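Working notes for the structural subgroup meeting. M.R. asked for a predicted model of this chain before we commit to crystallization trials. I am recording the input and output together here so anyone reviewing the notebook later can reproduce the run.

Input as submitted:
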Amino acid sequence: MLTEYIAAALHHAHYKLLEDGAYFGEVPELPGTWANAPTLEDCREELREVVEAWIMVGLNRGGAFPVLDGLILQVTEITS
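Returned structure, recorded in token form:
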């Protein structure tokens, strides 16, 4: 499920070429997720890492995640 959620997030990514020739990418649905790199491929890879970190921080904080392409990422409490 996590892999599919990350893929969906990256499907929503917007990229643009900056004046200095570098690339900027962001996932608007995930506030604060952005990357900047010299090539589009590097920008995509960096953005994927940023999205993964964003999810890990959210999981640690017990936060809610937006629904992306019908995918719901939920934190459930495990009790023994």
